[in-house]
Design the sequence.
């Protein structure tokens, strides 16, 4: 009579070996995804010229200590943390690649933290998929390659959310609470929109079913509120039209945000991501009621992270327009987490693999499109424009800039070609970041120019305006247009004095 078969458990050594192998495999995969994210964000990092906002960042960081404090505290506190870091960073390098590298570092660092959040709130599979989606997302790549503070504040929001979850897992560890306070305060001084994560965390605290560490949370919130007072006072008292250029919000703006969050890989990619969101929502709604609120708490936290900041921004924009897609980049981690949660439900496995391959390929197409053409704002090739102006200029020439801040671009790039004669700058009269506070056109100088300059250059972008139209009217009897060259939205025009030519 055959003996009954017995199902043996693995020997302790075998179980330990399997656990170590699985752990090493996870580390290898997330490391590979992180390396991929670094490669995509470093590729062509110095290829594109700085655009005007990046030039402003560099110009602020270059100010003397008194000028730096004056500009940041009276005009640019919104990204004050980034400017402070950039100020020290630029001591090591001044080129486009190195300056932008400061934005690459937090963008890459966000990838493993998104994985950790996904693993803790959903599953190992969701964490890995979310990290991959973030690594290949063109929206994230685009702002990781810009000398502005967007990738920094997005990373700090991710870090704050991870620390918030850690605080609930181990409420007696003071280091987690201190880290949460530091991450949120730094995030708000990297960009004021980071403050929109606070109502998300408060609602998540209310929805938390298990005993919640309210005392520590309230103390942390009080410290955050106290340290945020300078930012609140700045918003209340220093509003001088810094976002006056923002247009009223329209439905196409929200659609544009959805396109960017999905990775700007076309309608098919948007639909695949939308399908992932729908599956994630179905997962949330189909969780058995008997499981309780705690079973869906992680889902609810991420959904609020995605939806609430957008909804608040749209609501405020009904009175004061401030809906700018790049300001909402900190919602991208929540987006990829939810898409990953939905896609992870796809069965069988081969179908899931096929969908992930398609999403990755379409996302990489979006990244390639950014490398080739850029998007929002249009590429501004100040590097080539300044080189052209300097290479064509002659001794005794003068130049006027339509936009006062454009002179900052000129001053940054002209240092690369000291062999060329630099034309005299007629307008604006000074060349530092104090131009941010406004430099009104000096119309009195226009009638004097024909007698002083034989050749006059005009650098125009986002125009023409009253000054350039008036200039052309005043010079119509003295100058003729002798040349014109376009560099994306930048136009460089040369005017020659006809009276001097006749002589």
Sequence:
């Amino acid at each position: 009579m055959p003996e009954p078969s017995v199902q043996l458990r693995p020997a302790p050594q075998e179980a330990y070996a399997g656990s170590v192998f699985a752990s090493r495999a996870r580390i290898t995969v997330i490391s590979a995804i992180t390396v991929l994210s670094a490669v995509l964000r470093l590729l062509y990092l110095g290829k594109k010229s700085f655009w005007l906002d990046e030039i402003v960042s560099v110009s602020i960081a270059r100010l003397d200590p008194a000028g730096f404090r004056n500009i940041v505290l009276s005009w640019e506190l919104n990204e004050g943390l980034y400017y402070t870091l950039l100020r020290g960073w630029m001591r090591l390098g001044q080129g486009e690649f190195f300056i932008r590298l400061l934005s690459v570092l937090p963008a890459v660092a966000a990838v493993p933290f998104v994985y950790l959040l996904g693993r803790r709130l959903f599953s190992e599979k969701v964490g890995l998929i979310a990290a991959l989606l973030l690594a290949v997302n063109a929206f994230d790549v685009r702002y990781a390659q810009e000398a502005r503070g967007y990738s920094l504040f997005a990373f700090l929001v991710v870090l704050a959310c991870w620390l918030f979850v850690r605080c609930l897992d181990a409420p007696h560890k003071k280091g987690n609470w201190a880290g949460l306070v530091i991450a949120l305060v730094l995030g708000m001084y990297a960009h004021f929109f980071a403050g929109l994560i606070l109502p998300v965390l408060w609602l998540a605290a209310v929805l938390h079913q298990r005993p919640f560490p309210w005392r520590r949370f309230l103390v942390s919130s009080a410290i955050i509120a106290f340290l945020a007072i300078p930012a609140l006072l700045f918003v209340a008292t220093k509003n001088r039209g810094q976002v006056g250029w923002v247009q009223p919000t329209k439905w196409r703006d929200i659609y544009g945000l959805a396109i960017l969050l999905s990775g700007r890989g076309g309608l098919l990619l948007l639909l695949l991501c939308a399908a992932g969101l729908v599956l994630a929502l179905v997962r949330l709604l189909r969780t058995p009621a008997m499981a309780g609120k705690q079973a869906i708490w992680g889902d609810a936290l991420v959904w609020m992270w995605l939806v609430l900041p957008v909804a608040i921004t749209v609501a405020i924009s009904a009175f004061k327009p401030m809906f700018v897609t790049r300001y909402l980049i900190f919602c991208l981690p929540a987006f990829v987490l939810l898409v990953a949660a939905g896609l992870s439900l796809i069965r069988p496995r081969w179908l899931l693999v096929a969908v992930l391959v398609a999403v990755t390929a379409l996302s990489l197409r979006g990244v390639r499109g950014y490398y080739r053409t850029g998007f929002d704002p249009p590429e501004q090739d100040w590097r080539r424009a300044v080189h052209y102006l300097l290479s064509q200029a002659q001794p005794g020439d003068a130049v006027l800039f339509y936009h006062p801040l454009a002179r900052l671009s000129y001053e940054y790039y002209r240092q690369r070609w000291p062999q060329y004669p630099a034309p005299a700058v007629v307008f604006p009269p000074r060349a530092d970041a104090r131009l941010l506070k406004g430099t009104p056109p000096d119309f009195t100088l226009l009638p004097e120019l024909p007698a002083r300059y034989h050749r006059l250059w005009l650098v125009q972008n986002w125009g023409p305006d009253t000054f350039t139209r008036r200039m052309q009217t005043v010079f119509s009897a003295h100058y003729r247009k002798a040349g014109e060259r376009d560099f994306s939205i930048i136009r460089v025009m040369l005017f020659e004095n006809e009276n001097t030519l006749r002589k």
User: Anything to note?
Assistant: Residues 14-43+76-237+244-373 form one domain. The chain has two domains: 14-43+76-237+244-373, 382-502. Confidence is low (pLDDT under 50) at residues 1-10.
